[in-house]
Design a protein that fits this description.
With about 375 residues, the chain is mainly alpha-helical. About 55% of the residues are buried. The two termini are about 30 Å apart. About 80% of the residues lie in helices and about 0% in strands. The radius of gyration is 20 Å and the shape is globular. The mean pLDDT is about 80. α3 runs antiparallel to α4 and α7 packs across α8.
Length: about 375
């Protein structure tokens, strides 16, 4: 639910820009804003987890999510009739508040797995945890593609209200969440100790390899979802068709991630599964770029489904390999480092992708275009590393 806010308007950038009377490029800045506040949110996550336990982390995350979603809705409801750009600033404020709680969710799947599940169940839990951020972003983009319509993005207010109501329901639900029996808190631990553990991990070559692959995969997945609405429109597709493609991307991702988690839990073949999933992810990405052309909706939908299946199936394999490689370092340290580095990279990678896409001057980002070659080079780099 938190991640649906990141890309709520990725499928409809032109209409949102007209609704708030802003330049279209500012719409993608909402995603960059989420990336920019991720590291401070990670510090908050580490402090809360060590000082108060997992239950407090979950409750604070739900509270920030609710506050941010309410600010977004009120900005459109109250400020937009007065000033479109002013309302967009209010929207950014709400986005930032909700994004501040994002690392409290994204950095803790390994902690959930260790606290509440047995060893045989851990891989499936990590698969769900790895999938949920990208799934939420894709779901947010897909829902917006169907709900928002017209030149002035009619339906935006209803979308923001729905997100706020869902966030309120989640906030009420997590009130009952408690720490696992026997869970220990390390109140003497501090940020400096966590930083020292992270620095030691960066001296381990195999973990650094996992880190680079993870960063490449997250950057490609995030940029694809962020700009998919613009890419689809440049290729002649409607917002509903872009939303359908995003939805199928995520459905494929769910199936692929769950399958990877099951295989890892059954066979523990961590490196073999990692090599296979990364190779399949890059291969399916190449197929998607080949199919991405005007008047080829069926090809785009089918190839997009396989792209999502294999791209997202690599994420749980990477997380499991990272946790195994860094044992006995606490699992939240390795996952925090993975997500922090990936999010920081997106702060630069997303604007760079926008520059490459804008340089095509509205041409379809099909095979052979500058945008497709840019993504191809990043994908091949990550593919060759395993």
């Amino acid at each position: 639910l938190n991640q649906t806010l990141w890309l709520s308007f990725a499928a409809t950038p032109y209409a949102i820009a007209r609704r708030f009377d802003i330049d279209e490029r500012f719409v993608s800045s909402l995603a960059v804003l989420c990336n920019a506040v991720y590291v401070p949110g990670s510090w908050l996550c580490t402090w809360l987890l060590r000082s108060f336990g997992l239950a407090r982390v979950v409750k604070v995350a739900a509270g920030l999510q609710l506050a941010g979603s309410l600010l977004r809705w009120l900005a459109d409801l109250v400020l937009r009739p007065i000033s479109g750009p002013g309302a967009f600033l209010g929207l950014c404020l709400g986005q930032g508040v909700a994004a501040f709680g994002s690392p409290l969710i994204m950095n803790t799947p390994a902690v959930f797995a260790d606290a509440w599940f047995g060893k045989r169940e851990r891989e499936a839990v990590l698969a769900v945890g790895a999938l949920s951020p990208i799934f939420g972003q894709g779901l947010g983009s897909a829902i917006a593609g169907f709900v928002i319509h017209g030149d002035l993005a009619q339906g935006t207010q209803q979308l923001l209200l729905g997100q706020a109501l869902a966030s309120g329901a989640v906030a009420l639900w997590v009130v009952q969440f408690i720490d696992a029996p026997g869970a220990e808190r390390d109140e003497d631990d501090d940020t400096s100790r966590s930083s020292q553990q992270m620095l030691r991990l960066l001296c381990r070559p195999h973990f650094v390899l996992i880190l680079v692959i993870f960063n490449c995969g997250m950057a490609l997945a995030a940029s694809t979802l962020t700009f998919f609405g613009e890419i689809a429109e440049d290729c002649g597709y409607q917002t509903t068709e872009a939303g359908a493609a995003s939805g199928l991307f995520m459905i494929g991702g769910v199936l692929g991630s769950l399958a990877t988690g099951s295989v890892l839990g059954a066979f523990r073949a961590y490196r073999t599964v990692l090599r296979a999933t990364v190779l399949l992810a890059v291969s399916s990405g190449l197929l998607f770029l080949v199919m991405l052309r005007p008047e080829n909706l069926a090809g785009v939908l089918v190839s997009g489904s396989f792209f999502g299946m294999f791209m997202l199936s690599a994420l749980p394999a990477l997380l499991s390999n990272a946790v195994e490689e860094t044992f006995p370092t606490p699992p939240e340290i390795s996952t925090t480092l993975l997500f922090n580095s990936a999010i920081l990279l997106q702060v630069f990678f997303t604007p760079l992708s926008q520059i490459v896409l804008d340089g095509q001057q509205g041409a379809c980002a099909s095979w052979g275009s500058a945008y497709s070659m840019f993504n191809l080079y990043i994908g091949l780099f990550g593919c060759l590393l395993p």
